[in-house]
Amino acid sequence: MDILVSVIQYILDMGASVFVPILMLIIGLVARMKFKDAFSSALIFGVAFAGMNLVVNFLLENVSPAAKGFAENTGINLTAVDGGWTTGASLTWAWKYAFIAFPIAIGINALMLVLKWTKVLNVDMWNVWGKAFTACMVTFISGNIYLGFAVCAIQTVVELKVGDLWAREIQELTGIPGVTLPHHMTLIACVLYPIDKLMDLIPFFNRKMDVNTLKQKIGIFAENHVMGFLVGTALGLVAKYDISDALVLGVNAAAALTLFPQVSKLFMQALSPISDAISEMMKKKFSGREIYIGLDWPILAGSNEIWVLAIILVPFELLFAAILPGNQMLPFAGLINLSIIVAAYLLARGNMIRMIVYGIITIPAFLYIGTWFAPWITKLAQETGAVNVEPGTMLGWATIENGEFRWAFASAAQGNWWGIIAAVVWLALFIIFYKGRSKENAKRYAEATE
């Protein structure tokens, strides 16, 4: 068993930019691609992953000091340090039972495919850590490892179902066929869905307002590089940078927003041949059965709307952190809130007005849920020894992915009546969202093909 755990850990330590392309190479070969073509596609996929990580880290390295400066200038004194998703992943893999999430994820996916309960073949094994993190938190909070992995199994099922839901929309938004996003960060869409339906009744929110529409209305000010420069410079001035440093931040933010779409084109270049090969194989072997390949969120990272929203939300995150009573989280490593921007983009189908509303109204929930989990994340850090936590402080995650699900089911696992109600409500919202959005998509794409 120790050898198996060591092998799994060794593979995971290579990171997603190596690990996922290896899986893509295997899938390409299984789909009868020529080795040179499968290898080329897999390698380009790895290059795309590495490139996206470089640009995300570049943006974060420039924005985070401005956030810290803002906090210092406003005298905010918050005790929970935001370690972001990278710290969450590191702590999870240091938990001795984390590897159990692999057979659970693979087994459930295989069973649901055989029973035709899903069309998703999820190859995003890197993000199994998110399921393991859920199991870990529920185990720590409830004291029951069986409940921990039961919730992990529930998360696996709903991830696959939401992957079924997003596939056509991702093809529409990105032009990449045959792929989807069975990622737990998008599950917050089910909580926002009732608000989305209310917005349908208000004409203002039904205007077409993606980045391309903005370009028609405000011209150069809607260009990626210009928006990045303006928002980045404004953030620097709010952080009381001098003029030159604020301008440098503006140029760096402009560079990041310009590079994102360029790097994202590599994902399409890598995935199209593999997707075509899989489609051909499925037609021959399974009478044309449709299968979606489940991948990580960077397949959407070329969408300008995602990054515009990410930067717009930064000052709001810092403002709410400063004024919300009872909040202990200061956004830092998780300042670029991937936990909402991707789900908001998919739910709103790229409508910037709706995306901004979703982003702003969810910030308090992220901060309070992050504060609630901070003692447990700190306990995990102390027990595993993976991260040193200074006395008098806590380690947390200000923009915790799938936080509402984890909070509800962890509270239910504790035996709290309000936690049980919250878990039931979450499941009800997911069912409403899944059925409602499925009907919308059926009508939407039927009309598109007529």
From TrEMBL:
A UniProt-annotated Pfam family: EIIC-GAT
Membrane topology: Multi-pass membrane protein
Subcellular location: Cell membrane
Statement: the UniProt record of this protein carries the keyword Transmembrane: yes
Record GO cellular component, one term: plasma membrane
Biological processes, Gene Ontology terms: phosphoenolpyruvate-dependent sugar phosphotransferase system
Keywords: Cell membrane, Membrane, Phosphotransferase system, Sugar transport, Transmembrane, Transmembrane helix, Transport
Single GO molecular function: galactitol transmembrane transporter activity
Domain PTS EIIC type-2: 8-436
Transmembrane segments: 6-30, 42-60, 94-115, 330-348, 355-374, 415-434
Protein name: PTS EIIC type-2 domain-containing protein
Organism the protein comes from: Enterococcus avium ATCC 14025
